[in-house]
Amino acid sequence: MAAPFAARAAPCDGLAKLNLPNTTITKAQIVAPGAFRLPPGGGRSAEFFKAFDRLPAFCRVQATIAPSRDSHIEVEVWLPQSTWNGQLLGVGNGGFGGSIAYYRLGEAVQTGYAGASTDTGHRGGARDSQWSIGHPEKQTDFDHRAIHEMTMLAKAMIRAFYGTAPGRSYFNSCSNGGRQGLMEAQRLPDDYDGIMAGAPALHFGFNTFVSDRLDAFRDRGGKLVIYHGSADAPEAVLDYYRQLVSRMGQKSVDEFVRLYIVPGMGHCGSGRVPNDFGQWVRPHADPRHSMLSALEHWVQLGIAPTSIIARQYRVDGDASSGVLGTRPLCPYPEESRWTGKGSRDDASNYACVGRRR
Predict the structure, then answer these.
(1) I need a labelling partner for 201 at 20 to 30 A (CA). Which of 92, 105, 244, 340 fits?
(2) CB under 8 Å, gap of 24 or more: what pairs does 316-321 form?
């Protein structure tokens, strides 16, 4: 893992003067420790990051990108001023997007990453698709272009601010965000070294859809971890994985893909079961309990993920509330099975075994 180090190339406000294609940098300024305040509006959930008042100082870059005449892609890039871990973490959007994922940016900076988020090319609610009517370029932005433009901007800001490119780049998101991750692996395999795609909405989008064409991502050494709750209709993602295996072969798929079906979990993390396994980014995570950490070890050290221990907290998403139970998550096609001895709430009493037919 890269050691934290101080920004040493360009001052934060100097980033606003950078001349990048189709890009207007509207603001670049240092946010003092704990000084960021959420814009009004937006949802709340127990799983959402809350510790904005404990964030270290960071350079906040706000920009608008217009790759087409009808495009208006808003992007934010947050760059830790002195605690950067040398890596980029791109984050995605649920539903139809329409807003910056400030909670995910907060998680990223708290953990040392440079973080990047986009509104996917429009403003609106996650269930609102009216903006797309009669706007094919905005549909393209939503389908795949906004995430790529966000990523390219983030890498340019990192090079300018720190004087070096990110050592590794990761993407982590769920639902439509999981689809965004798969689209990146499929269409733009050089954008990210590792992608964590939760409950990918495989058939979501307007004109461009997820396929099993991940050969280029595999060939350049990319790694992909997919997860899906067993109570969240996982049939489509299972079919997707089987298509990969059918076309590429099990050995080839095992070189760069892991799929985890999480017992009893609903969409992205719900359910009264162990459902917390690193999809919400926290400092000091380890690869035994965090899929993202396990993905990093795979990319950087060549150590492929095996079982991941999921936790169930008394309050979903609140690690300080106490642990009710744990359970291993096994890479498909294995599943965790109780040994018949000891508590069913203790991961040590389970084994990863072949699935029953």
Answers:
(1) 105
(2) 316/46, 316/47, 316/269, 316/270, 316/275, 316/276, 317/45, 317/46, 317/47, 317/48, 317/269, 317/276, 317/280, 318/46, 319/276, 319/282
**Measured between alpha carbons, how far is 202 from 48 in angstroms, rounded to an integer?**
24
Rounded CA gap, 307 and 295, in Å? 12
Task: Specify whether the CB–CB gap between 114 and 79 falls below 8 A.
Answer: yes
Provide the token pair at 75.
Answer: 């992007």
Please report how many Cα atoms fall inside a 13 Å half-sphere around the Cα of residue 181, on the Cβ side: 32
How much is the pLDDT for 8?
56
Confirm if 255 and 218 have CB atoms less than 8 A apart: yes
- Transcribe 198-246 into DSSP letters: ES--TT-SSS----S--HHHHHTT-EEEEEEETTS-THHHHHHHHHHHH
Asked if residue 92 lies in contact with residue 119, where contact means CB atoms within 8 angstroms, the answer is no
Taking the CB of residue 57, how many other CB atoms lie within 10 A of it? 18
Q: Burial, 267: exposed, middle or buried (Cβ in 10 Å; 0-12, 13-18, 19+)?
A: middle
Stated as kind and residue range, the H or E segment containing 161 is helix 146-162
CB–CB of 329/262 below 8 Å?
yes
pLDDT digits (tens, 9 = 90+) for 270-287: 899 999 999 999 999 999
| Domain definitions of the chain by residue range | 1-37+47-121+144-166, 171-357
> Shortest CA distance to 350 belongs to which of 330, 332, 331?
330
Cβ-contact 78, 60 below 8 angstroms: yes
Residue type, 239: D
Q: Is 92:178 a contact under the CB 8 Å cutoff?
A: yes
The set of residues, in sequence order, having a beta carbon less than 8 Å from that of 277 and lying 6+ positions away, is: 227, 260, 262, 289, 290, 291, 308, 309, 310, 311, 329
Report the C-alpha gap between 216 and 179 in whole angstroms. Answer: 18
User: For 60-72, what is the mean pLDDT?
Assistant: 98
- CA distance linking residue 71 with residue 119, whole number of Å: 12
Degrees to nearest 5, angle at CA 165 with 170 and 281: 30
- Rounded mean pLDDT of 324-331? 98
Report the C-alpha gap between 67 and 71 in whole angstroms: 6
